[in-house]
Give the backbone structure.
Amino acid sequence: MSIEKKGDCMTCAEKVLIMTGNHAAAYAVKLCDVQVISAYPITPQSPVVEKLMEFVESGEMKAEYVAVESEHSAITVCISASVVGARVFTASCANGLALMHEMLHWAAGTRLPIVMAIPNRAVAAPWNILNDQQDSISQRDTGWMQIYCRNNQEILDTVIQAYRIAETVMAPVMVCYDGYVLSHTLMPVNMPDEKLVREYLPPYRPHTVLDPKSPRNINPVTLADPRMNAEGVLCHGYMELRSLLQKSLLGSVSVVAEAGREFGRIFGREYGIYDSYRTEDADLLMVSIGSLASEAMDTVDNMRAAGMKIGVMHLRLYRPFPAEVIAKAVRETGCRGVAVLEKNVSYGYEGAVCSDLKAALFDHGVDVFAHSYILGLGGRNVSVSDIEEALNRSYGYLEKKGPDRIKGQEWINCRV
Amino acid sequence: MKEDKGPTSGCDHITASSTPATGEGGRTGDWRVLYPVISRDGCVVAKTGKPMCYMCWMFCPEGVISKTVPPEINLEYCKGCGICAEECPSKAITMVQESGE
């Protein structure tokens, strides 16, 4: 249940409601005038769609809710509805998201601006319903954009921004937030004015339109080479279409930045590509995605108090990977090392974010070490002291030079 | 095929799409290993000069057999599946090996 209280937003009279991260996502979907919702319930995502069903059933939301028998069908309904010009939404996580995998490629390859909320959850086996980020990280190569949130306000604001970003880039967006840690935790959330949301987010103008008067087949077999169609137009082959998707995604970092700036202008809460906390003059930088970065702020306060120069960087945008922006930001802190703490692992190597960050630092000639730490898998609690333990280990490498700085990935608070 | 305007490059589509028209799937005839030949002595339409039977037209999954007297097969798009030869009640269609290049 939400409790209303008077807000104190500087730029507009926003109501403040106390709600979970899941309900924040649902309220954002309502504010965005989404027309078609299809989802299959899965813990911890269920309250997102239950709330949306309530909105549709009560007539508060003029949308179609399509109940289906699986996540594969849910995303397929979204793809079909998006192709014919509707603004659509779905939500899933863990094994449900994994079941969508094939259709995630279809959505991105068709360039459909679908937005999906993902309350991150561990992927079985063994069976587990608790939080880590393995589910969305495992989908990073599908052509979807991925934005990670640190609190419930960010979830609500990011879903609204996600539609603007998706409909500009013409690519689908995943809005990821930690299951339970955010999805089931009550926090005060400023509710944007619906008229201002409409100003921020104009109605969706689809680029794929199915019109019986001018019939078209979307996604016919598209072989290797460009091909002349029946009208004598040379049409792209598979590689050209995929290259266009890649170019749009690589160019979309500025779209995300613009969407965050404009959101700040209208609603008074500005968003960037990354967030930083006490990174000025830092010797060691802790990099993370999602709520772990919020937790790390307390750790860093403690460690700074003990005289250790440590800062936190939260990568809000993970796909496309804003390599140049991040490398520049790391360089500007003047740090000597980076510790990447994450709730996922690319099995057989290290944390996925760490690998991506290393590649960015290497490409841009930023000479710092980057250590990978894995924490909190399958809901294992991550305490301030766990983060402190990881940061202490990397802190000991600051004086080392060359290859001595290299250290393999480590799992924190794992008892084997 | 519609009027041939020649190749115009610079397709502005970001999503693969096509209009329902002959040839939109490409020249599928070049997939063929065997091609069908209708015997004028065996096909009842050819023999009688009357429109009848048309089981080949009915069963062709590619729609490349015409409902004419006699029936004609568009080898530009016939994939050589052989269903027409299988279905012809008069056994008037033979599948012949492509010479290959």
